[in-house]
Amino acid sequence: MIVDALHPTDWPQVRAIYREGIATGQATFEQSAPDWKAWDRKLLPACRLVARDAAGQVVGWAALTPYSARAVYAGVADVSIHIAAAVCGQGVGRCLLAALVDASEAAGLWTLQAGIFPENAASVRLHVRCGFRVVGRRERIGQLHGVWRDVLLLERRSTSVSV
Known about the structure:
Blueprint: E1 2-5, H1 11-24, H2 36-42, E2 48-52, E3 58-66, E4 76-83, H3 92-106, E5 111-116, H4 121-129, E6 133-144, E7 147-157
Parallel strand pairs: 4-5
Antiparallel strand pairs: 1-2, 2-3, 3-4, 5-7, 6-7
């Protein structure tokens, strides 16, 4: 497996993996994947990665969204990571998230945060293994398909970017 930069040409495969995660009802509040332009506008340009298998196919992706437009939060970003169902449990997520952490620090970010449904135990474990900690639980923060959902808030502080 190779982790490298996500390019616009990767979008069809990235979008397919995103849709797969959306369909589980455990990965995101989103109910549909946007088009490339909308997705591209909301993400930080420096921290977009894909994991490729030996054949060069995208099997996972990770990216960061700015936490806020306010300058005081310039070093804080939200994590999105999605792994193709066919390769879950094979270490793709760990390699991808570790590379995203490195990319975020190279970009000067000091805090990464992730909002994860408590039922998505595999994602919680992955983030904890990569240095995140649970800092809270946001109860009934939003509805998905008419059901109120809680979200765990996880945070990782950089060990190399000064704050």
